[in-house]
Amino acid sequence: MTNNNNIMSDIRVNGQALDCVSSFKYLGAIISIEGSKKEVLARIAQTTAALTQLKPIWKDKNISLGSKVRLLRSLVISIFLYACESWTLTAEIQQRIQSLEMRCYRRLLGISYTQHITNMEIRKGSAKPSVGTMTCLPL
User: Can you give the pTM of this predicted structure?
Assistant: First the structure.
């Protein structure tokens, strides 16, 4: 068996040689030679799907912003952060994570990109009068 560094290694379990693989799934997380990009992209896709399924809740005017934030944290962000301890962050992955964060905030608040409200305004809570609690929403 040869790995990516052309170092010969022969690992055997009960006399049977193990294969060298470039990626595998362990406890629902993708472990890969290339780094964490595949795992982060898969988590972003799963998170976006969960965010979309909760669209009726985000649009409901009878649910308070605080309740929506708690739902976002428990039902959406928890999907994204599963196994994040093993990620290797690059500038590209950090940018994708920040984009997901803003997508979640915008969806929760009902703010479209066409409204030309900056990300800083959303983070500060000045995008809407009732959004003062947004400054304490770490993702």
Answer: 0.71
